[in-house]
Design goal:
CATH architecture of the largest domain: 3-Layer(aba) Sandwich
Largest sheet: 11 strands, mixed
GO molecular function, one term: acid-amino acid ligase activity
Number of strands: 18
Radius of gyration: 23 Å
Organism: Bizionia saleffrena
CATH superfamily of the largest domain: ANL, N-terminal domain
CATH class of the largest domain: Alpha Beta
Strand content: 15-25%
Shape: globular
Domain GH3 C-terminal: 389-493
Number of domains: 2
Protein name: GH3 auxin-responsive promoter family protein
Structural class: alpha/beta
Domain GH3 middle: 297-362
Length: 506
């Protein structure tokens, strides 16, 4: 197999050298023109005069001035509902072959996001770009002959009318290239098992028959799977079952909060590569080991715009105001939080994906995810994004020599005012809750100016409750579905938080 690995690594190296370097700004200009040209005769394209936009000397500016912002509810109600009524050529030519079902991290009801054949191709091509980028990570040749465990949602898609429905990870896995199927685990039969526990149990039983070199999925569910494999085979760590495991491709959420608990399941360090695959498209991936940032996929079916993340532009429900200014890739600034806006080959137009990002390298178009527009904790002016909350959790892990893979919180109103009320998931955090709260409060005040100001006004303090990490997984299972793209809410509104506290209560 070493010969095969050398051949594959050599082919990847050759493809990397022969592939011309992408100019992100130029690539985005071409993507926008392609989107407008392809969709100009759709109902949406006619309504917003795409043909006229294509004749403009400044297409990007004309596009931004003509097309309003859409969140899911707005574009679904105004346009995508026509697809459900059997109409064609609505926001993209023809009708979508798939719908990605996504409740994301907010609410129980599933969104139904169109996924066209063009988007399936775009995701596949972006995946190939990511594989090619592995050449930058100096992995040994034998890695490229090992198998890859992709743990997402079930690939058993539901048939409805003339399309198939499922989560995007299931749709993507059901469309893997033929040449990859020999490397793909757990294999098509197991991947179709809909029940999460049954699928993981089956994986555990067969685990020793596979030579896994890489894992791919959301950290919390990958962790749970590894624990089940370790438990089933009565071993100390996952490398006793998969000794050649060398890479984890993480997606969906920031890996930082999971790092300590994840590494505790390993015998030796592995390479962690971040990926940003959303229900609406393949957004970005980490292309080099010198940074943890991810490179936007700028040449493959998704056009990006960026709205500065400013409180004046954000509505209470996380959507953005109509006149919020946007910039394109050529005008973004370093270390500025932006609301991510996308237009895609699935017929999403100036679509609010719900994430906030910041650029770490403008020339390379490299970003980090900084949070969710709905999870921006600003009830009393504290202005804390998810990445700042993650930093606080990593501080607690170091301060108390513990692991905290899960957490959630709310700016909750008590009789004497607001408190940031945290639930922290840990099995070995033994300190008194008041001591943890004091340390957390002190850290946030020392690292976040707006939080410190809020603590001198309407924000009275911090409350902490430590619970088992399993409670968070059980909450996800009870309210949505285990596995797949399901992610834990980091910040909740008071109504949702009441449901959470009722769930947690003994």
């Amino acid at each position: 197999m070493e010969i095969l690995g050398n051949l594959i690594k050599g082919a990847i190296n050759l493809k990397d050298k022969l592939t011309p370097e992408v100019n992100p700004i130029e690539a985005q200009e071409q993507v926008l023109k392609h989107l407008l040209e392809t969709a100009k005769d759709t109902q949406f394209g006619k309504a917003y005069k795409f043909k006229s936009l294509l004749e403009s000397d400044t297409i990007a500016e004309a596009f931004a001035a003509t097309i309003p912002y859409f969140d899911y509810n707005e574009i679904s109600e105004q346009w995508w509902r026509k697809l459900h009524n059997g109409e064609e050529n609505v926001t993209w030519p023809g009708t979508p072959s798939y719908y990605a079902l996504s409740s994301g991290t907010t609410g129980n009801s599933s969104k139904r996001i169109p996924v066209t054949d063009a988007m399936v191709d775009a995701i596949r091509h972006a995946g190939i770009q990511q594989v090619t980028a592995l050449n930058n990570f100096d992995l040994p040749a034998d890695f490229f002959s090992k198998e890859v465990m992709m743990l997402g949602s079930s690939t058993k898609l539901a048939e409805k009318d003339n399309h198939l429905e499922g989560e995007i990870s299931g749709i993507s896995a059901s469309n893997i290239p033929f040449w990859f199927k020999g490397y793909y685990k757990p294999g098509e039969d197991i991947a179709k098992i809909d029940d999460w526990e049954t699928r993981v149990e089956t994986i555990a039983k067969r685990a020793k028959s596979w030579d896994i070199g890489a894992l791919s999925g959301i950290p919390s569910w990958i962790e749970l799977m590894m624990k089940e494999v370790i438990k089933y085979h009565k071993v100390k760590n996952i490398h006793e079952v998969w000794p050649n495991l060398q890479v984890f491709t993480s997606g969906g959420v920031a890996f930082g909060p999971y790092e300590k608990s994840f590494n505790a399941l390993l015998e030796k360090p592995i390479t962690v590569i971040d990926t940003y695959l959303a229900s609406e498209g393949f957004i970005a991936f980490q292309s080099r080991p010198e940074t943890e940032a991810m490179q936007l996929v700028t040449n493959n079916g998704v056009y990006f715009e960026f709205v500065p993340f400013h409180p004046d532009y954000i509505k209470p429900d996380g959507s953005i105001v109509e006149n919020a200014p946007s910039v394109t890739l050529k005008d973004v600034k370093l270390d500025q939080d932006y609301v991510l806006i996308i237009s895609t080959v699935s017929g999403a137009w100036r679509y609010l994906i719900g994430d906030t990002i910041a650029f770490t390298d403008v020339e390379r178009a490299e970003i980090k995810i900084t949070g969710r527009t709905k999870f921006f904790l600003n009830t009393v002016g504290s202005q804390l994004s998810v990445n700042k909350l993650d930093d606080a959790i990593q501080f607690l892990e170091a301060e108390f020599s513990t692991t905290i893979p899960e957490y959630t919180l709310c700016a909750k109103r008590f009789n004497d005012g607001f408190y940031h009320t945290w639930y922290i998931g840990s099995n070995d955090l033994k300190a008194d809750a008041s001591v943890i709260a004091s340390a957390l409060d002190a850290f946030l005040k020392s690292t976040n100016k707006n939080y410190k100001v809020a603590r001198g006004k309407a924000l009275e303090g911090v409350k902490v409750t430590v619970i088992s990490p399993d409670v968070f997984l059980n909450w996800s299972g009870a309210n949505k579905k285990k596995g797949g793209q399901v992610k834990m809410e980091r910040v909740m509104g008071e109504d949702k938080f009441k449901d959470w506290e009722d769930f947690v209560a003994p």
